Amino acid sequence: MRLETLRIRGLRCLADASISLEPGVTVFSGANGAGKTSVLEAAFLLSHARSFRAGAKDALLQRGADALSVFAELRHEDGRVRRLGLGRQGARWEAKMDGETASLSELVGECAVVCFEPGSHALIAGGAEERRRYLDWGVFHVEHEFISAWRRYQRALKQRNTLLRAATPPPEALFLPWEAELDATASTIDRLRELYLAALRPHIGRALAGLLPELGPVEMRYRRGWADDVSLGELLASQRGRDLARGHTTIGSHRADWSIVFEHAPLREHLSRGQEKLTALGCTLAQASLYAERRGEWPIVCLDDLASELDKSHQAAVVDQLRSVGAQVLVTGTEVPEALQVGPARVFHVEQGLLNPLL
Ligand SMILES: Nc1ncnc2c1ncn2[C@@H]1O[C@H](COP(=O)(O)OP(=O)(O)OP(=O)(O)O)[C@@H](O)[C@H]1O
């Protein structure tokens, strides 16, 4: 799939920017703080309804503006063109598709954007939340049952946590329906996550063998968030006292995690910062390639600040691979990265929130 047009209003320093995009590689170059990453952020928003920058929720809205919006024309591999819109007025987000109001999940389901950026090493070195988000975004795009199980799970979790925080401990009968709902939906979520990871493993293996051959074969480990041989319902009942003391639910799908283990670097701490980044890049590319296998088209791939994140040979290898599969690639840099000076690429100069095509 590819973006044909992108219009961004009220997002950080982009007051009103409108561009047409070509297939293949597009580079956004300009000085620090010019607004390059914000362009990628806008594309990513259409696919995730959040930014990839930590804590960006409120900072996204341009200072002094009362609304932000991103509009795009998205062309699918089969020729379908969808008009997508995402706007935020105050704290409320609103999605549109082809002029009609749509839910955020419909919008996110239509448009797939993956991003490798300076914060991506958090996928490997950071907390479990980032890894669950990565996993669930992938599962959502290939397993249709996932979203309803996930929503039901979140609702039941919220209800149980409210009971756990009540001033006087509520009777057991109030917990039972929510614990039964958590049990049922967690087993669906767990099954779909397992299925997704099983499909992802060969893609991760190939991507990491290409990026980090010196670390040897790779294994992915998954922890579902509660002990293996017991049902979540039974555990929730037996651990209710402990959860009451803590004021929240301490086990379940919301505590799941996964990790990557290399034969020659069995602990996360064995990886250098550069190796963490390459591992995160491998995970991003693997997710994109599994998406392509299942959905018949590559997601749009954003590479933020490519030249400062990867050495030249890795930059060239990644861009060549993405060119060879025909993915649309949006790259930022203070200069056009050397690896992109060979082969076709369109360049926009970005300056103080204005985007001007150069080539
Ligand atoms: N809410 C906001 N309102 C207005 N301007 C903002 C807001 N948030 C950030 N900015 C400014 O917008 C610009 C956004 O920069 P962005 O991160 O997109 O730049 P960049 O070109 O990628 O920079 P770098 O090369 O330094 O990574 C910065 O100048 C920043 O100070």
Q: What structural class is derived from the secondary structure elements?
A: alpha/beta
Report the average pLDDT across residues.
94
The number of distinct helices, counting runs of at least 4 residues, comes to 11
Strand order, largest beta sheet: 2-1-4-5-6-7
User: Considering DSSP H and I runs of 4 or more, what fraction of the residues is helical?
Assistant: 40-55%
Secondary structure tally: strands: 14
Global shape: globular
Q: H/E element string?
A: EEEHEEEEHEHHHHEHHEHEHHEEE
Q: How large is the radius of gyration?
A: 22 Å
Explain what you see:
- With 359 residues, the protein is of the alpha/beta class.
- It has helices at residues 36-48, 104-110, 122-125, 128-142, 146-164, 172-211, 232-238, 240-246, 273-295, 306-309, 312-325; strands at residues 2-11, 14-20, 25-29, 67-75, 81-89, 92-97, 100-102, 113-116, 218-223, 257-262, 300-303, 329-333, 346-351, 354-357.
- Strands 2-1-4-5-6-7 form a six-stranded antiparallel sheet, covered by helices on one side. It has a six-stranded mixed sheet with strand order 8-11-12-3-13-14, sandwiched between helices. Strands 9-10 form a two-stranded antiparallel ribbon.
- β1 (2-11) and β2 (14-20) form a beta hairpin.
- The radius of gyration is 22 Å and the shape is globular.
- The chain binds adenosine-5'-triphosphate.
- Residues 12-13, 30, 32-38, 59, 61-63, 305, 332, 334, 350 line the site of adenosine-5'-triphosphate (ATP).
List keywords for this structure.
alpha/beta; 2 domains; six-stranded antiparallel β-sheet; binds adenosine-5'-triphosphate; Glutathione S-transferase Yfyf (Class Pi), Chain A, domain 2; Rossmann fold; 23% strand; six-stranded mixed β-sheet; 359 residues
